[in-house]
């Protein structure tokens, strides 16, 4: 479906034959109430490990935050997520194959949309979608046929999608955003405080 991504995957497979180098599937239970949606696998992160947000800085911040807010249990190791079990949340990407320079094209995003749609449809208990970055945000809007100019992206902004589902935005937890100060740890934690307020308190499964 995406010749450019296939070519890039084969290039990485030749250079790093021990890496995953393939589409990265979601992790976490479909019964979860929270879906965390990222952009795409990082070339030296999930593309290497085969698990979303593992093996790179963004994963360190994400998984440590999930532990803090009790969306996960375990201990962070060198490969975040390997020793962490998700609780009542699931992690996916808008684009499932690693793109060159971490920049998927519009057509590549569109090609992966059916996978995201199936993801959301299959999560019967879903209450909150956390979109990490503009592409994840826009991907959700497209599925619900919502206009971007009326549903603008903004950090820690919430959008009511109807039927009890809320879209929450956050700047992506990438090293670039944290190094430039666009996103701080406290800002990221504030997003999860919002999510906890939106989700009805209940016994963690």
Task: Tell me what the structure shows.
This protein has about 200 residues and is of the alpha/beta class. The chain has one domain: Uracil-DNA glycosylase-like domain (Uracil-DNA Glycosylase, subunit E, 3-Layer(aba) Sandwich), CATH 3.40.470.10. It has seven helices and eight strands. The strands form two sheets. The protein has a six-stranded mixed beta sheet with strand order 1-5-2-6-8-7, sandwiched between helices. Strands 3-4 form a two-stranded antiparallel ribbon. Strand 7 and strand 8 form a beta hairpin. Helix 4 crosses helix 5. The protein is globular, with a radius of gyration of 16 Å. The mean pLDDT is about 90.
Write a concise keyword list for the protein shown above.
205 residues, alpha/beta, Uracil-DNA Glycosylase, subunit E, six-stranded mixed sheet, two-stranded antiparallel ribbon, 7 helices, 17% strand, globular
